[in-house]
């Protein structure tokens, strides 16, 4: 299992990513309009926001992302399902397999935070998570949080998947 570290992508910072300007409508969420993630703000709607890429076929993941959105009172996070074609257009260095293993948070400078690192970063940004920040930032605790995140991520489809999973969900039941 790989962990996305805080690294800067080559050539794809949020400022120069295609579709990341406010006037570019190609960055809108292209998932079905009746899907749960279609109500979430996209990078096109929040060009200065952090971008959270998550598994939009996972009901557990979608519920957690909706919680993040509700608690993001300052509008600092935009959302993309990893299944949205825009993800591969804007972030070609992120593989489908990598994104299926862990959510990825991309900051304004293009640095990537994956899995537990992403959640830990969100505890400093999203007011609803502020109470968790002290425990998430205990020195040397990241390996523990990463292990816990991997266990939940590994079994997330047991909590439910959306109907249009198109076979990609089966990998999580093996």
What does this structure look like?
The chain is α+β, with helices and mostly antiparallel strands and 174 residues long. The chain has one domain (31-164). The protein has 6 helices and 4 strands. The protein has a 4-stranded mixed β-sheet with strand order 2-1-3-4. Strand 1 (50-54), helix 1 (59-71) and strand 2 form a beta-alpha-beta unit. The protein is globular. Mean pLDDT is 78; it is low at 1-37 and 168-174.
List the SSEs and their pairings.
Layout: E1 50-54, H1 59-71, E2 77-81, H2 85-90, H3 96-101, E3 104-106, E4 112-114, H4 116-122, H5 133-136, H6 142-154
Parallel strand pairs: 1-2
Antiparallel strand pairs: 1-3, 3-4
Distance between the termini: 16 Å
Shape: globular
| Biggest sheet: strand arrangement | 2-1-3-4
Task: Please summarize the sheet with the most strands.
Answer: 4 strands, mixed
Mean pLDDT across every amino acid position: 78
Give the structural class. Answer: alpha+beta
Jot down its keywords:
6 helices, 9% strand, 174 residues, four-stranded mixed beta sheet, single chain, 28% helix, alpha+beta, disordered C terminus, globular
